[in-house]
Amino acid sequence: MLKKVDPSQLRVGMFIHALDCGWMTHPFLRNRFKITHDDEIRKIVAARIHSITIDCSLGLDADDAPTVAEAEAAVDAGIAAIGARPVVAPRTTLADEFDRALSIRRQAAGLVKTVMQDARMGRAVELDQVSPVVENITGSILRNAGALLGLSVIQSKDDYTFLHSVSVCTLLVAFCRARGLDAETIYQAGIGGLLHDTGKALIPDAILNKPGRLTEEEFAIVRRHPQDGHDILARTPGIGTIPLDITLHHHERRDGAGYPERQGGTAISELAQMAAIVDVYDAITADRCYHKGIPPAEALRKMYEWSSTQFEPALVQAFMRCVGIYPVGTLVLLESGRLGVVIEPHETSLLTPKVRVFYSTRSQAYIKPELVDLARGLGFGGGDRIVRHESPGKWQVDPQRFLALA
After folding, report:
1. What is the sign of the dihedral through the CA atoms of 159, 161, 165 and 170?
2. In 3-state terms, what secondary structure has residue 238?
3. 303: closest CA among 288, 320, 291, 289?
4. Per-block mean pLDDT, blocks of 10 residues, the chain (406 long)
5. Which of 91, 126, 188, 395 counts the highest number of beta carbons within 10 A?
6. Are 72 and 3 spatial neighbours (Cβ–Cβ below 8 Å)?
7. What is the DSSP letter of 287?
């Protein structure tokens, strides 16, 4: 039997089935092992790992801990409550905005690449080149946020650093807009999102693109990039305090386990906390040289669980309402056995989005694409239900092909 425990419940003799963090961030060579001495427990506590799965069939039990199924049911209930709240309706259709969004994304990625190259050469960031790109991203988000947000899941491993910055900018602008922030704050946050990783220009490529675990010395170099980025941007004429704050603090965490200043709780500004949320979300959904990205819906579940310690819960919930319980571009399996890609959240229930179905898992063949509004009943363009999100790799399909059909 698998159970969820926190560090205070760990004892010698328990068998660790999973540490709820990336294998690159925990201090053990293995993901599964039996605890044989107290020093291993101290390492887990020191690494600020707050959720652990133990296998009671291979080690000691924890009588008062919930089973994995019970813990997942609690998460499902919390997410269902979040999904029942209304969201902002798009001004244009996804199909109308998609081509413009593609062009804006390419332009933004090219700009970030230039900024990184300039920073590496010691040249100053030119804000007059950054501003129109952020304005274009903001305009696209206002017309139909799903277009750029849906494109965020498409990232090349080779161009990850540049596309990640574009995605963080896109997500942060959408997040700010969903929370009703004023236009100037949204613009400044967009600048911060696009430039937040400028300090990575100073990290050697061999470390930045290393496929395996980083050494302590290498990770120390990586941890310098928020301060390096802040120092680079501080020399930029006209740069605002919000981009500087986001750049310096997007790796801080609510429990004080972040870097570079190990801030915690309310010491981290709200916009920096929002930037941290979108930064982590995009990082764990993207394919990297050292890990396979996870589906957006699964990433949101994880962030919901992590919000009790790493992030402000209310902000994570607001972010989930912003991107949707099933974000645009998510592949879902319907009760009918059809696969579909989410193209738009429903205005009043994020659990019943509009989906374009295109594949039958029962016949294992493509079908004629059809728009299904899951909020409607049978005979009115709906009458189906999401069973779960799926990985495109499992079915060898490309849901992005069906995102923007007219």
Report:
1. positive
2. coil
3. 320
4. 91 91 63 91 83 92 90 83 71 89 96 95 93 97 92 72 94 96 97 98 92 86 97 95 98 92 92 97 84 87 88 94 91 96 86 94 95 82 86 91 79
5. 188
6. no
7. -
Q: Measured at the alpha carbon of residue 82, what is the angle toward residues 282 and 259, in degrees to the nearest 5?
A: 35
The strand pair at 338-344 and 354-360 is best described as antiparallel
Rounded CA-CA distance 200/89 in Å is 36
Question: Which residue type is seen at 269?
Answer: S
User: pLDDT digits over 227-267, tens only?
Assistant: 999 999 999 999 999 999 999 999 999 988 899 999 988 89
β-strands 365-373, 386-389 pairing: unpaired
* CB-based contact 151:249 (threshold 8 Å): no
Phi, psi for 354 (deg, rounded to 5): -85, 135
Closest CA to 171 of 197, 128, 140: 140
The first and second tokens of residue 44, run together, are 């887990």
Give the dihedral sign, CA 328/306/31/72.
negative
337: left (phi over 0), alpha (psi -120 to 50) or beta: left
How many Å apart are CA 23 and CA 212, to the nearest integer?
10
Q: What is the predicted pLDDT for the residue at 26?
A: 65
User: What six digits make up the tokens of 253?
Assistant: 């965490």
Helix (H) or strand (E) holding 220: helix 216-222
The radius of gyration of the chain from alpha carbons, rounded to an integer in Å, stands at: 22
* Integer Cα distance of 313 and 326 in angstroms: 19
Largest Cα separation within the chain, whole Å, is 63
Q: What is the pLDDT of residues 126-149, one digit of tens each?
A: 999 999 999 999 999 999 999 999
Q: Which of 37, 51, 39, 47 is nearest to 7 (CA)?
A: 51
Element of type H or E holding 340: strand 338-344
